Fold:
Amino acid sequence: MPFSKVQGKKNTHKVVVYALSTCVWCKMTKQFLKDNDIEFEYIDVDLCEPEEKEQIHQQIQSKGGSLNYPTTVVDDKKAITGFRKDKLKEALEL
Amino acid sequence: MTKTTIEAVQARAQADANTFGYHLTPDPELLQGLLEGLKTNEERYGYPSCPCRLASGKLEYDRDIICPCDYRDPDVVEFGACYCRLYVSKEVYERKGELPTVPERRPLEKQLSP
Structure:
């Protein structure tokens, strides 16, 4: 699947953002991570092929996430639904 | 492809807010982002599905998330804002503070639709 990587100086956590290209809250989440120099990967699910979307749904749910966007998964185990600065700060130790 | 403008999307949303006694979100940056998402979806699918939800591109599956979505009214009543927070109640609009967090009300089976 076509994940994009954003480089950052803080790379102690594995951070994956499942996003929609049309979603302003998803854009705010990505910007928040950039502003805090966090390295992360993201995928805009609405731009994926149908079979990829199915795989992504399974991937998100297997990590405890719901099918809401953005969903940010930290270290493959903590899923944060929505643009929640408080939860992102806690999970990323900011 | 359907072509539309931000101004047309905003005028439609504002008219609907006026009709139902709601307000559009007071945050200008958020409002602009939401309107752009609606415009993109209208041009992509032919209807303005919620920019914060994954549409299938099939009208029969997406009817409930065409803005204003089927969940807006109960969400505004319960939380003071709709899911994407384009529409807010008078109280939330006048408070001008942080917008409420609104959980997804759409059933999971609809989110998994093709």
User: Anything to note?
Assistant: The interface with chain B takes residues 20-28, 45-46, 50, 53, 57, 66-69, 82, 84 of chain A (CB under 8 Å). Residues 20 and 44 of chain A are 5 Å apart (CA to CA). The radius of gyration of chain A is 12 Å.
